[in-house]
Amino acid sequence: MTSDIQLNDIVTLIRGDARTALQSLPDGAARCCVTSPPYFGLRDYGHPDQIGLEPDPAAYVAELVAVFREVRRALADDGSLWLNLGDSYASDGGTGRQGTRGQRFDRRHTQETLGETRKWPGAGIKPKDLIGIPWMVAFALRADGWHLREDIVWHKPNAMPESVRDRCTRAHEYVFHFTKSPRYYHDGDAISEAAVSDHGSGNGFRRDHRLSFQDLDGKARGSDTAWNGIGGRRNRRSVWTIPTRPFKGAHFATFPADLPTLCLRAGSEPGDVVLDPFAGVCTTGVAALAEGRRFVGIELNPANLVLARPRLCQSGFGLIHARPAAIPPRPSEVGGYHA
């Protein structure tokens, strides 16, 4: 069962299961999808239709493949999917996801609901193994027709401590960049980063060398570094250092808005529709509105939508009274290129 909440022409929220709610979207409805599904074996969100509590990793992967098959249909032909996933560990008593996304961890749900009652060996998975959930999903989506363009490492400098002594504390998650077609919209300039110079330069240039900007540009073209001599910018690297941010509401698994902001800047233009089929409290939506995009969010838990609505209304567009003209129409050519 689904229920639309049409705040205005800029934001649409759909309360329902992503596996069925996506079917209500027309083909090519969105230019970009930025999302983070419930992680495998992390916690019980208290809904019988939730994803994440499947009996084994293969069943979890199969559910996500079905969801993102519908996402692919709903994307424009030059659209992109940016998928954030964390991993899980196997143990004698069940699963324990390491490297939690936020500053708080719902131990009650994880330990009591998932703890001693969930035992599954899994094919070739031994106790204490890192399961490799993100890559299992990534390869399954590739086999289902997606183009797997890149694995981006989200480095969390303030990662949550772990009570482990026989391995390093995990401080990263993955963001996979998928595309519907081999040629797609991508605006690298919109997410370029400051070029590192002088000591510790990652680009091979030292500013104390007497080279003109033209010389630098020429050298850059002969290397693997994209260099903008005028602005001192370079192509963004595939490790994104973004601190986690605490969320005061009841939804603890909220990623920081900086993460979807980078994704939607690269994969969409102002006026485009950004989709999140696992919207949660709509952090992707907040980022989309701040960047002049429209937003369609799907969320199973109605309590999350209660938390999401004021966040969207405070995001700078005054949604209750906003006019469609607040977001300009998509320009025919504004930056970007079809890779």
Primary descriptors:
Rossmann fold, site-specific DNA-methyltransferase (adenine-specific) activity, nine-stranded mixed β-sheet, 339 residues, 24% helix, alpha/beta, 8 helices
Task: Describe this protein's structure.
The structure is a single chain. With 339 residues, the protein is of the alpha/beta class. It folds into two domains: 3-192 and 237-325, 3-Layer(aba) Sandwich (Rossmann fold), CATH 3.40.50.150; 196-235, no CATH class. 24% of the residues lie in helices and 22% in strands. It contains eight helices and 16 strands. The chain has a nine-stranded mixed sheet with strand order 1-2-15-14-3-4-8-7-13. Strands 10-12-11 form a three-stranded antiparallel sheet. Strand 1 (3-6) and strand 2 (11-15) form a beta hairpin. The longest helix has 18 residues, at 57-74.
Task: Lay out the secondary structure.
Layout: E1 3-6, E2 11-15, H1 18-21, E3 30-35, H2 57-74, E4 75-85, E5 88-91, E6 94-97, H3 107-114, H4 133-143, E7 147-155, E8 172-179, E9 185-186, E10 193-194, H5 213-221, E11 227-228, E12 233-234, E13 239-241, H6 258-267, E14 273-276, H7 283-290, E15 294-299, H8 302-313, E16 337-338
Parallel strand pairs: 2-15, 3-4, 3-14, 7-13, 14-15
Antiparallel strand pairs: 1-2, 4-8, 5-6, 7-8, 9-16, 10-12, 11-12
